[in-house]
Amino acid sequence: MKKAISLILSTTMAMGFATSVMANSTTQSIGVGVNNLGFVTDDGQLVMWGRNEYGEFGNGVMDGSNYFDFTNSVKDVVAVVCGYYDSTAILKSDGTMWTCGRNNSGQLGNGTREDSSTFVKVASDVVKIGAGEEYFIYLKKDGTLWGMGNSAERQLLNKYEETNVKTPVKLMEGVKDFSTYLRNTAVITTNGDLYTFGANVHGQLGVGSNSDSIDDVEQPAKVMSNVRSVSCGSEYMLAVKNDNTLWSWGTNVYAELMNDSSEEHVINSPKKVADNVLKACASRHNSAYITTDNQLYMVGENLNNELGLEKLYIRATEVTKIADNVKDVAINQRTVYTTLDGKTYTAGSQINSIGYASKGWKEQPYKIADEHKYTVNATTSSDNSSVQTGNLITLQIGSNILTNNGKDTTIDVPAQIINGRTMVPLRAIFEALGADVQWDGTTQTVSSSKGSTNVSLQINSTELHKNSETKTLDVPAQLVEGRTLVPVRAIAEAYDCTVGWDSETKTVSVKY
C-alpha cells in the first residue's frame, strides 16, 4: 500500500460552486452533491449545507441564495443523497422515500416536472437510495431496483432511453446493494455478482469496451463475482471484494484508478489495486478508501483541497494516508469523514471558510448517525441479475442452441449482434414463450398471439405493434438466411418478460 504523495502545484484556486457531479459516500448517512451536502445526525435530524435555489433543503424555502451555514431540515431521517442538479432524496425510518428540489427531468418521481421546496413522498418499503444526474434510483425490501428521471444515456436502461421518466419504474430484481453516479449504475445481486448499466463512453461499466452503443449496455452486464461493495464515480468505478481487495476500472485522469499511473488512460475491465480494504468511495476524479484497520487514504483531484492537505495542489498522484480511526467518508468538491469515536471533519470548497478552498480539516459540532442497516427479502438471483427463478430461455451469441427451462433446441440461425443489438430468430422465441405464430408472405408481416396479447411486425420496419400500441425499435426486423431476426428485448417486453445479459459468456436470457 502506498503512503507517499506526489503533488503538482496549482497556479489557481477554484472558487464558488463549480459544475461537477454528485459525490459518493461509504454511508447513507452523508450525501455530498455538487452545490450542497446533507447528513443525518444520530437523533435523525437532517442537516443541509450549500445552495438552496430549487428548494433542495426541503424546508419550504426556494430563494436562490447560497447558504454557507448548516441548516436543520426535517427529522426522522435515516439516509440522504444529493443529486447533480440541485435535488435531494431522503429515507425515513418507516421505509418511505421522499424527494425535493429541482425536477426538470421528473427526478422527484411525483408525475410532474415542477420543482418542490418541500419533501414529497415517492415510495414505501425502501431500504436504500441513490442519486445521479437528474435521476434517482432506490432499492426496495423485496430486492427490486427502481428509478425515475433522466434516462438519455441508459440511466434507467434502454427501455426508457431519451425520456424523462416522471414516476418510478422497476429496473431489476434480485438486488441487495447498488451505487449510482452521474450517468451509470452498479448493482450487486443477492449472490454477490456485480452488474453495471448506463453510459459507457469512458469504459466505466467494466465490460471490456468503452462504447455505449454496443449490446453489453442494453441490459445490466455482469462484471465480476464475490463483490461486497461498489462505488460509482463519474467515469470510473471502485469495487471491494469479499477478500478485502480493491478493484478499479474506467478512465484515469487524476490518478483516481490507483493503478500506478498518473497519465490519462482507460482501463475497461477490473484491475486489483489494493489489499486490506474495508470500503471505498469514488467521486469525480478523486478516490478514498478505508482500510480494515480504519485508516483513511485518498488520491486524485484536489482543485478545491477536498483531500484536506496543508497546501493547495491540483492533484495528488499517489495514494496518501489522511487519518486514523475513520468510520466513513464522502467526497466531491468537499469531503466529510467521521471517526469511530463520533467526530466529524470537513474539507474542501467553501465548507470551512467562505470564499476559498481552506487548508486542512475542520472538526464540526455534529455527531453523524451510524450507517442505516437493512436486509432484503429477495429470492437468491441466478447467474444473471435481471432474472430470478421461474421459466427461463437462454441463447448464446453465435450458438445454434436455444435452452428453454433446461431443454436444448437447435435453431436454424444463431443469436447475433446487429447494429449493437442482440437479434434472435423470432419464431424460435415466440414458440418458446408459448405464443402462436403466423406469417404473411405478401406483406412480409409476422404476427403472434398469446392470451389477450397480439404482436405484429413487418420486415425492415422499426414499428412493433402490440394490441393497439406501437413501439419504435432501434433495429428493424430483418431476414437473415431466410429467418426473421428481431431485437430480443423488444419481443420479450411485448409479452411482459425480462431480458438479461451476461457479458462474460455473451448469453442473453429471457425470464417469462
Number of strands: 44
Describe the global form: globular
Mean pLDDT: 85
**Helix share bin:** under 10%
Radius of gyration: 24 Å
List low-confidence stretches: 1-23, 212-218, 381-390
Oligomer: single chain
Instruction: Determine the N-to-C terminus distance.
Output: 48 Å
Q: Quote the CATH topology of the largest domain.
A: Methylamine Dehydrogenase, Chain H
Helices, by number, come to: 2
Strand order, largest beta sheet: 1-26-25-24-23
**CATH homologous superfamily heading of the largest domain:** Regulator of chromosome condensation 1/beta-lactamase-inhibitor protein II
Name the CATH class of the largest domain. Mainly Beta
Class of secondary structure makeup: mainly beta
What is the domain tally?
Answer: 2
Q: Approximately what portion of the residues adopt beta-strand conformation?
A: over 45%
How does the major sheet shape up? Answer: 5 strands, antiparallel
The CATH architecture of the largest domain comes to 7 Propeller
Structure notes:
It is a single chain. By secondary structure, the protein is mostly beta strands. It has two domains: 23-295, Regulator of chromosome condensation 1/beta-lactamase-inhibitor protein II (Methylamine Dehydrogenase, Chain H); 392-511, Copper amine oxidase-like, N-terminal domain (Copper Amine Oxidase, Chain A, domain 1, 2-Layer Sandwich). The protein has a five-stranded antiparallel sheet, with no helix packed on it. β20 and β21 form a beta hairpin. Mean pLDDT is 85; it is low at 1-23, 212-218 and 381-390.
